């Protein structure tokens, strides 16, 4: 396969086969999440890690904000999500966050790790990790 003509599942071409990852590490936010009655009473800390594979701009030297996927806007959308209704499962939360991350047409793959950091005192965290590809 010629690396200058990669085509992904969504039909997009990747110029010169050049990709890069956007990393959001240890985003801690309060969420109403969980299946137990006590988890409905108050929010609990959820740690979010995302690795988002995206297409590289045609000209990285252009130093243009409009040519890249904005991690700040992804974080803002996740903050908005944290203010919405109670979720039962971390799996549901991970899926919603993956959809947010993959919303930009330049995004190809999202790895999302969700950890509840306060739910089981004998652990630092419990959680899940998913990978979604367009």
What does this structure look like?
With 134 residues, the protein is of the alpha+beta class. It has one domain: GTP Cyclohydrolase I, domain 2 (2-Layer Sandwich). The protein is built from 2 helices and 6 strands; from the N terminus they run ββββααββ. The chain has helices at 71-82, 90-101, and strands spanning 5-7, 13-15, 19-31, 44-55, 107-116, 126-133. The strands form 2 sheets. Strands 3-4-5-6 form a 4-stranded antiparallel beta sheet, with helices on one face. It has a two-stranded antiparallel ribbon with strand order 1-2. The longest helix has 12 residues, at 71-82. It is elongated and about 50 Å long. 20% of the residues are buried.
- pLDDT < 50 stretches: 1-5
Fraction of residues in β-strands? 35-45%
On the 0 to 100 scale, the average pLDDT is: 89
Helix content: 10-25%
CATH class: Alpha Beta
Using DSSP, what is the number of strands? 6
Radius of gyration: 17 Å
Order of strands, widest sheet: 3-4-5-6
The ordered string of helix (H) and strand (E) elements is EEEEHHEE
Structural class by secondary-structure content? alpha+beta
Biggest pleated-sheet summary: 4 strands, antiparallel
CATH superfamily: GTP cyclohydrolase I, C-terminal domain/NADPH-dependent 7-cyano-7-deazaguanine reductase, N-terminal domain
Instruction: State the CATH architecture.
Output: 2-Layer Sandwich
The domain tally reads 1
CATH topology group: GTP Cyclohydrolase I, domain 2
Morphology call: elongated
Number of helices: 2
State the end-to-end distance: 20 Å
């Amino acid at each position: 396969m010629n690396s200058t003509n990669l085509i992904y599942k969504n039909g997009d071409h990747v110029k010169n086969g050049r990709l890069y990852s956007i990393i959001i590490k240890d985003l801690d936010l309060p969420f109403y999440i969980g299946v137990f009655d006590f988890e409905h009473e108050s929010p609990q800390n959820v740690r979010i890690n995302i690795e988002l594979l995206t297409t590289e701009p045609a000209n990285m030297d252009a130093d243009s904000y409009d040519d890249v996927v904005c991690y700040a806007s992804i974080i803002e959308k996740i903050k908005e999500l944290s203010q919405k209704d109670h979720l039962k499962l971390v799996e549901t939360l991970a899926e919603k966050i993956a959809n947010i991350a993959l919303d930009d047409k330049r995004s190809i793959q999202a790895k999302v790790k969700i950890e509840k950091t306060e739910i089981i005192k004998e652990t630092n965290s419990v959680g899940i990790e998913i990978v979604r590809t367009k």
